[in-house]
Specification:
By secondary structure, the chain is α+β, with helices and mostly antiparallel strands. The chain has helices at about 5-15, 20-25, 35-60, 180-190, 210-215, 225-240, 245-250, 265-285, 310-315, 435-440; strands spanning about 70, 90-95, 105, 115-120, 125-130, 140-145, 155-160, 165-175, 190-195, 205-210, 290-295, 295-300, 330-335, 340-345, 350, 360-370, 385, 400-405, 415-420, 425-435, 450. Strands 11, 12, 13, 14, 16, 17 and 20 form a 7-stranded antiparallel β-sheet that branches. Strand 11 (about 290-295) and strand 12 (about 295-300) form a beta hairpin.
């Protein structure tokens, strides 16, 4: 069964639709000898691996070497023109090369401040976390170990086995508001990193890098072409898949990927492979599992290891560092009751009934972006409202109204989330979401027009 059919069958099954073969158009079985379809499936399966490697290369070329923490130390502001910046956490990252031995990440006592260090392998799976949910907020040391590591760890060092010998560590430290920056930096600059072989003596602290585009570069696969498969063949030999994923790789041996047979490089096969890249990309784009309710859309739950190759590749469209669902869930909306977009010509309200704000163990936030998904200037310099934004006013019945509009509300600025005068969109983020958020029984309320 080819990967597109596999993904669709799995999605329909997860929706409770049985007897899929009876309700889907009949499709011929695809043999492995069909090189075009096989190449398309190979592109889909290998997209996360090649994406991660290219991202690493771009980062290194930008002067960000391995085994060094890089962080932002400034608030995200409109002038950065960054796509979808997170204004409720400071961020950072490190590429870890474990080929010469484990790397130890040290964390301070954060006094219950939310933080997370997300660990992604080269197949773009988030295999583990260090942070408030996963390991608590006390000071500690964590050794990230490569596959097959059997050495002993010092007392007080917790081992975290990695599936691949290179890992992306993605850091987030909670920022309550602009006045909280100094306190947040006290945590954010206190992470350390160093080789286990030199522990505890050699540990580096983070380096500030304000240019977020270099820290988290965009990688384009639109014109990847046939060389993509040479790159994939090289990478699977460096980063073998886990046992459960190995049969997928074995399918692609006729293409010379990971097998003993060299890949044929005649003009016909090169053209077929280039065509397969475009076809595979479209399969992924059209297969992203999204749930829509009350005008809000969210990615379906992301587990530690995504077994469906199509859905694992789909994480590319949400970016590196897409959280697992047990750590955070994001909703997005552009809809405002009329028309395809929210628009600052209208005034909006988001009303949370008493006890119906997002159930979380950490915090939630609501952020406004313009149509291009970047921040915009406003009189308050306020880009988001958090559950702990100072001065929020609740109704006598315990409800919370967030007023989203271009001009200052008659009620004052306490619950005002400024909006641009043109089209815009919003994200609602829930950190350490409760079970009702994860299982989908909690639904965020709609955004209502209140022009009258």
């Amino acid at each position: 069964m080819d990967l597109q059919r596999w993904s669709r069958r799995k999605f329909l099954s997860s929706c409770g639709l049985t007897g899929v073969a009876a309700i889907m158009p009949s499709e011929p079985a695809v043999a492995n000898s069909d090189s075009t379809i096989l190449a398309r499936d190979a592109f889909i399966w290998g997209l996360p691996l090649v994406l991660m490697e290219r991202s690493f290369q771009v980062s290194e070329q930008a002067g960000l070497p391995v085994n060094q923490l890089f962080i932002t130390t400034e608030l995200a502001i409109p002038q950065f023109r960054q796509i979808g910046p997170n204004v409720d956490t400071l961020i950072g990252h490190a590429w870890l090369d474990l080929s010469q031995g484990p790397i130890v990440i040290g964390v301070p006592d954060t006094n219950d401040r939310y933080y997370s260090i997300q660990l992604q392998d080269m197949y773009m799976d988030t295999f583990d976390y260090i942070g408030r949910r996963a390991t608590g907020t006390k000071a500690g040391h964590f050794a990230i170990t490569s596959p097959g590591f059997e050495g002993a760890l010092p007392a007080g060092v917790t081992g975290i086995p990695a599936p691949t010998s290179k890992v992306l560590a993605y850091i987030r430290t909670m920022l309550r508001d602009p006045q909280d920056l100094e306190a947040a930096l006290g945590v954010h600059t206190a992470y350390t990193l160093g080789p286990l072989s030199a522990f505890p003596d050699y540990r580096t602290t983070p380096i500030a890098k304000p240019d977020r585009a270099k820290m988290f570069p965009h990688v384009n696969f639109a014109d990847a072409g046939a060389p993509f498969f040479d790159e994939l063949d090289r990478l699977v030999r460096i980063y073998p898949p886990l046992n459960w994923d190995a049969p997928n790789l074995a399918r692609f041996a006729p293409l010379g990927i990971g097998g003993d047979t060299p890949r044929k490089r005649d003009a016909k096969s090169e053209a077929e492979l280039a065509e397969a890249v475009g076809a595979g990309y479209e399969v992924v784009r059209s297969s992203i599992n999204i749930t829509r309710v009350n005008g809000w859309a969210r990615r379906d739950n992301v587990p530690a290891f995504i077994h469906d190759p199509v859905q694992r590749a789909a994480n590319n469209f949400f970016g590196k560092g897409t959280h697992r669902s047990d750590e955070a869930i994001y909703w997005g909306t552009r809809q405002g009751g009329v028309g395809p977009w929210l628009n600052g010509a209208n005034r909006y309200r988001m009303r949370f009934a008493a006890g119906q704000t997002p159930p979380v163990d950490a915090f939630w936030s609501l952020t406004v972006y313009d149509k291009d998904y970047v921040l915009f200037g406003n009189p308050l310099g306020r880009y988001a409202i958090l559950d702990r934004t100072k001065g929020l006013q609740y109704g006598a019945d315990g409800s919370l109204d967030i007023l989203i509009q271009a001009d200052e509300p008659d009620e004052g600025t306490s619950n005002w989330l400024p909006a641009p005068r043109a089209e815009f969109q919003m994200n609602l983020r829930a950190y350490q979401p409760g079970q009702s958020v994860i299982d989908g029984t909690y639904l965020p309320p709609p955004v209502e027009i209140v022009n009258s």
